[in-house]
Each structure stands twice: as structure tokens, then as C-alpha cells.
Amino acid sequence: MAVANPTLRPAPIDAFPTATSSAQSETEKVLLQHLPADPTAPPTLNKNPHLQFLIRNIVQGFPARYTSQDASQPWLMYWTLQSFSVLSVGIDPGNKQKAVDTIMAWQHPDGGFGGGPHQAAHLLPTYAAVCALAIAGRPGEGGGWDQIDRKKMYAFFMSLKQPDGSFLVAHHSEVDVRGIYCLLVTATLLDIITPELVEGTAAFVASLQTYEGGFSSASQPYYAPPSPNASNASNTTPTLLPSPRPPLGEAHGGYTFCALAAWVMLQPFLPVPASSQPHPHPHINTRSLLRWLVQMQGAPAELGGFRGRTNKLVDGCYSWWVGGAFALLEAVGVKVPPAAPSSTPAGGEWDDVDDSLLNRKALQEYILLAGQHPAGGLRDKPPKHADSYHTLSCLAGLSAAQHRVFPSPERRRVLEGAWKAADPEPTTTTDALRKRVFTDALCYTEEEGTETIVGGAGNRLNATHPLFNLTMTHTDAMMGYFYGQVVPRRGG
Amino acid sequence: MIPPPSALYSARQEWADVVPLPQYEKANPLAPILYSEECLSFSGVDRHTRAKNPPDRDATDYLRAVVKAGEKSERVLQLTEHVIRLNPAHYSAWQYRYETVVEIQWPLDAEIALMDELADKYLKTYQVWHHRRLILTLSKKAREELAFVANILQKDEKNYHTWAHRQWVLAFYNDDALWAGELDFVDTMINKDVRNNSVWHHRFFVVFQSGVRDGEEDRERVVRRELIYTKQNISLAPNNASAWNYLRGVLEFNKLPMSTVATFVKPYTVPLPATLVDLVDVENPPPGKGAELPCVAAIEFQADVYEEEARSASVDKAVELWKSLAEEHDTIRKKYWEYRIQQALLSV
Fold first, then answer.
1. Taking Cα atoms as reference points, which of A421, A411, A403, A408 lies closest to residue A364?
2. Which chain A positions have a beta carbon within 8 Å of B35's beta carbon?
3. Which residues of chain B have pLDDT under 50?
4. What residue stretches are annotated with the Prenyltransferase alpha-alpha toroid domain (chain A) (predicted)?
5. ipTM of this complex prediction, to 2 decimal places
6. What is the least distance, in Å, from the CA of B14 to any CA of chain A?
């Protein structure tokens, strides 16, 4: 029996059990029951039941237990549509049109999208709605893309901006790096990202990194007391102190993904142009970040899934938040140099091509063995139910573990060569920035011949963009349209 | 607390002046939620009405209508509370509730009392904590807040929002009276579960990230205290990533070399000796008799100590340790340990 395998030893308790170690042991017990009886049998991705799960939700509707998601309707739509895309399933024009009409009912008259019709605009549903439109929408009348009010959306974004470079997720709401990620994706896709919008944001994101290496959700700003001789104090921007600027909350997988992706999207805007900023050159510690990310992968007794915080349990959703974050490391300078032939481990073909820093094989096994619900849809871990959120997170994580997607210098050159300045031509600086944002985002490419698919070709999923979680095709189409560019065809 | 309404809004006289606003003007949205009457138990509503007009839809139809009309009144507080109880993540209801509280100058004490109940019930929603923060910002009453948070933490000792809220209370009010008992509180929580990473993070926040507190001006003494504290806790349960991460954090934050604790780490990198010497060494507490050694985190730490020395002989020793992690003690991270070897060899 497979449990006798010495690499499956349980997490050590040191004869000192606590609530954390007890929960851990219970989870390991359950997970080990999901090891296949025959370890040589390839695990299968049960695409058909998953498709049935998605179709049931989208056509018949979500069961009543989703009522708690009443303020997250764009998310339900995005999770479902993007799951279809990752599974390489297209949507018929009739349902696409229905999707667009439904999504557009969520746009707020003052800009941005809400969690449902007549709900207040909020950064999270704005991301979900715009990404859902990238999948289901198109230019022209009734297609959604031209009906997005980008001017008002920009004004909405600016109205949420805080003096420490962060953004509220909605009026009177919290600051949370998920909101910043959502804002930056939307602004990048729709060509409304500007130096004004993101001034100070990189320094805020950097302030979220904790001593563990991962990132928290927000940090607390401190400001210098207003100068007594300032005549009109309410009119002056408070001066942010460089320290203390403590993170509120510990390092966490979801926030770390959002912070890292935000950091990557902010690269074209660094260093911050205004020299009056207290931190003209914010930086993050990529060494401790990498260490934290790899430490989140569970042991063989946890089937190699990812956890979201130190000493917490593995959960399928971190397959994407943490597993998917590895593809962004190259953009921040963490790159595995090609191994010299002599030092290549003698582990067969797999090791020859796999230069990633996570254990791609183990992550795929976790999703295939523990992440799939027998009745369709994917989940946190057994014996939990499947839901839309975990279905996309697990599928996107599985996709990230199958494909090596990286910022290709070659693709960047092709995009730069094809770039056309807007007409009438804006200032050179503006044009250079737009071009940089565009090429930075679209140069992500799948490396040829590096697919590593556990269980065989039948389990293959579409590659997904590591910043946006949209397919390359949908990303190219939407950005090409809003930037007024013809995106050169991808090779192969 | 305002008692929950006993009938659908559409059947109530006091709401007769409001025309409910349905979600979708078009009949057939894609991916609709199939709202159910089961979400709420209503007394005095006949089955027929319920089936036709589910209560959660009924309440949100009226909320949309009052938001559209801009009404801010006591009955709006009642309505938003109702919607929040149906779905505590309904951020628009929270947002409108806050605006109403401010506009009609609703007593903040009453609002916090309601929040005490809702935080307890809906611990995992962002909004329940943020609304509390908005009200506290207005009322400036922080006195009892830490005790409230400590009590809520009993229910879920790793709840992200609760910890972030506690840190906000301390950082925002920045009042020495609030800070005074914080290290004792951390101690109590770590004694309950030494593996609770939220508490370790909180300790770091308290000791290092919020400025120097009264009585802590001697930073060398503080660092020494933290190192001893962490080492003691590692000796209790050596395979505890939270404590090792804290140890690394203390050293890095204070720009101390990793070799500062090399003597302590060494015994944790080898199997437990058959006979344990019973000695008290405060600086270098040895592993206890239940320790499962060697400990992966200790081997990793030891390798970093060697790498830090940056001499070729010591890098060789680091490489040996990384190899043992890649091939024996921590095979899941094989690629990462190989990467470390490659990087170290490149830099020699």
C-alpha cells in the first residue's frame, strides 16, 4: 500500500500537539485516502462532469446557497466563463450576447461595475465584469466593449485614491491589495492606466511585504502633523512618513499574488516621476518572497497542494494564488539559469525541461487526486463541496502547473516592431509608456516544448495569462482593441 | 437591536410609499442566482406569497428603491440591517447604512452594540470589520476594543480580519495605554498554540513595526529578549515554521548575521542524541525529548549560515546540506534547493 512510502511521513508533531498540528494530522489522513490504489494508473481530469457543473450553473442558474454571493454576481460570471476558456470550450453567440447584456446591467452610472444591478461600484466586481467582457464581449453595438464608460471608470478609480498611494475598494470601504490588483488589471486592459493614477501605489504595495516574505492585505500609514502656519490645512496633502508603515495581517497567498502582480504591472511607472515622494525607489525583497512561495507547497503527505499561510492547511484555491505566482517571478528578476548539461539530474525527460521552482508534478497531482469533486466541479479539499471559485482556481492552477508561461524577449521585440502611435500622436512620454504597458503585458508566451502534463495529453488545459487569468487569445484581442493595435499572430 | 420585520415589505403598511426596484429589468439574466425562500424563516407569511416573492429578493428590491430615492431614515437602518443579516457581504447595504448613520446622527454606541453581535456572527466578512472601524473612527472609543477582539479571537484564533483589526486599533489610536498589555496577550496566545502564525506575526508587529514604545528604548535588550523567546519556543516544538520565520525576521530586521544563532541551531540539524543532558542554557536551549530531528527548517537555516560566510569551503558545506534537503529531507522542494545550490556556486 502506498502509505508505507517513507516520503509520505506525516508532519512532525515533536510530541507537542496543538490545535494547529491536530487539524494538520486530520487533513493528512483524509488526503492520503485519495491516493490511487494503483500508483501507476495516470490520474484523469474529469472534464465532462466539470463542464456539466459549469453549464448547469450558467444556464439553469446557481443554487440558493449562492445567495450569499448576491453582491458577487460578476465573479460568478467570470469564474464560470473563464473556466470554460481554460477547458478550451467556446460559448455560443446567443449565450455570449446574454452574458454581455447581463454584465452591462452591473455598470454603475458613475463609473465602474457593482456586484449586481443597482449595487454600488466596487473594484472587485469591476475586474470580474471587465474580464468576463474580455471573454464574452466584442466591439460595436451591444458588444459590451464600447459600452464600458472608461472616462467615468477612471474618475471612479481616482475618487478611491488615498494619500498613501492605496485605493479603497469602494466608497466608505476598506483598503485591500485585492482591490489594487483589480484596478490595475482593469486599467491595463482598457488603456486607462496613467502615472497620475498609480503615483505612490508601488510604495504602498512594497509596504505590504512582511518579515516572512509574502504580502499582507493592507498597511497602516502615518502622516506628519499638519504645519501650524498652513493657512488652509484641508487643502494640503498630508505628508506620508516613510516609517512606521506596518502591514496589517500576516503574509497570505491571495494577497501575495495580488501584490506581486500589482508590482509587475507597476514596473513601467517606476521610479515614480514625482521626486517629492518619500520613497522614490520602492523595492521588494524577491529572495524572501521566493522562499515564502516555495514554503507554501505542502509535503507529499498533503499531496503537494499549496497552503495560503504558514501553518495553515492546503487548499485548492492556492493552486492559482501561490502556484500561479511563480510565473511572475521572472518579471522581477528571479530566473533559473539554464542548467549545464553535466549537472542535469538523471531523472529522465521531465527534469530536463522543467526549470520551474515549484513542484509542478506534485501540484497537478493534488488537483487531480484531491481537488476534483466526483459530481463535477473542483474544491478546496475533500470532503468539501465544489463551487465556482474553487473550480476556476483549481483549473487555473492546474494550467499554470502544466505550462511554462514567461515574458518572452522575442515576442516583446515583435510587439514593439508592430506598435503604432495613436492618431493624433500624444506626447512622446505618453506614447512610450503606453507602448511599454502594452508590450509588458502581451509578451507573455508559452515556452515551446515545456508542457508537463500529469496523466497524459487528455488532461491538457489552455494556458492562462499569469497577470490577468484570461487566455492569451482573449488578452490579445481586448488589449489590441483598446490600444488601437493590430496584435501580430502568435507563432506555432 | 431593531427586531427583524415579521412580514414582507410589500405587505407592510409603513413601506407602502416605496415602489420596489427589481434587479433585472430584462427577464433572463445569464448565470442567475436562484434565490430561495429557505434563506429566512418568516412568521406570518403565507406559502403562496413566499414562493412568488422570496424574502431576500423582497428586501433587496426595497433597498435598491430607497438607495435610488436617496432616503436616509431610521427605517433605512432597519432595512439595511435586514439585508445584511440575509447576506453580510452585501457591501452596498453596508455603504448605505454608514451614510445613513452619519446623516441622521444615529447613536454610535447603539451601532457598535449591533456590530458586537454581527462581528460574532459573520466573523469572516470584510464588511463587518470595516463598518466597525468606520464607527470607531467617529466615536473614538477604543477603550474596550482590545478586550472585544480578544474575546472574538477565541472563536477563530487565526481569523485574518480579526487580527488585522486588532493591529489597526493599536496603530490607529497609537495610545500607550492600549499597547501596555499587548506582549502579555501575545504570550497567552502563543502558549495556547505555539504554531499559530497569526500570533507570531502580531508579535512582530508589536515589537518591531510600530515604532519604539515606552520602556523599549534599549533596542539591544529587546532583540536579545526576542531571540531568547523564539529559541525557547523552538525547543518546545522544533518543527514549527512560524517560529523559524520569526527568528529569521528578527535577525534580518535588525541587520544581524544569521550566524548570531548558529550555536543554537546546530543540535537541531542532526538526529536527537540517545541520552539527553539535562541542562538549562537560556541562550541555547536544546531540543526536548519528543523532538523529531533533524529538523528541515534547522538544516535550511544552517545552510544559510554557511552561505553567509561566503568562503568556498563554507559554500561547499551549504551545498551538502541543500543536497540533503533535495534528496532526503524535503524532496517536494527539490527544484528550489537545486536552485539555491546553483545560485551559491555562481556567486563564489
1. A403
2. 64, 67, 70
3. 1, 37-53
4. 45-470
5. 0.94
6. 23
